[in-house]
Design a protein that fits this description.
With 199 residues, the chain is α/β, with parallel strands linked by helices.
């Protein structure tokens, strides 16, 4: 598959969807890194999340010279597609303007990788979005959470909080991921990959 557009979106507006599970029980989970990165981006644009009829918490503002809509689905992870696609339709943003921020088991902790398109890789949130959207051609910003230790079930691992050691670097890593999102929407995919894939 070839990327026909390096910069997300054909217009000025971009949808940044962070994945996680709603409610205080899940706040610090590895699976909720998408929400944590969106919180940082909301701080950067000076916005606050509000309940939206699409089924997501939504925050609007400007980032990297572009109008952005930040969205956190209020559904659980495996039903992320409905709220994400509902938000995209409400704001008239096509798949090419969607950037999904999510946890990635197959990357070392704290590493950030960006891509356009591809499969779900066992990630239920991505699977739901792809199914609801009808295409896998959208941008992803992947935050590495590493593989579970020993024989721990990955499903249990992602629903656990970051370890004490990981938490020492968590704020810095969230910052890094937010920087990657800004670079992606401001300078394009190739520029963001060049800058962040070498770290």
């Amino acid at each position: 598959m070839t990327v026909t557009h390096d910069l997300p979106g054909t217009g000025e507006q971009v949808l940044l969807a962070g994945l996680g599970n709603p409610g205080p029980r899940y706040e610090g989970n590895r699976h909720n890194i998408g929400f944590l990165v969106l919180d940082e981006l909301a701080d950067r644009i000076g916005g606050r999340f509000k309940a939206h009829k699409s089924g997501a918490e939504v925050c609007e503002g400007r980032l990297a010279g572009r109008r952005v809509v930040l969205a956190k689905p209020r559904s659980f992870m495996n039903l992320s597609g409905g709220p994400v696609v509902g938000t995209a339709r409400f704001f008239k943003i096509g798949p090419e303007g969607l950037v999904v921020i999510h946890d990635e088991l197959d990357l070392p902790y704290g590493s950030v990788r960006l891509k356009f398109g591809g499969g779900a890789g066992g990630h239920n949130g991505l699977r739901s979005i792809t199914k609801s959207l009808g295409t896998q051609d959208y941008y992803r910003v992947r935050f590495g959470i590493d593989r579970p230790p020993g024989r721990m079930d990955p499903a249990d691992y992602v629903l656990r909080d970051f370890s004490t050691t990981e938490r020492r670097e968590l704020a810095l890593n969230i910052d890094l991921c937010a920087d990657a999102v800004e670079t992606l929407i401001g300078k394009g995919l190739a520029a963001a990959q060049n800058e962040f894939h070498s770290r």
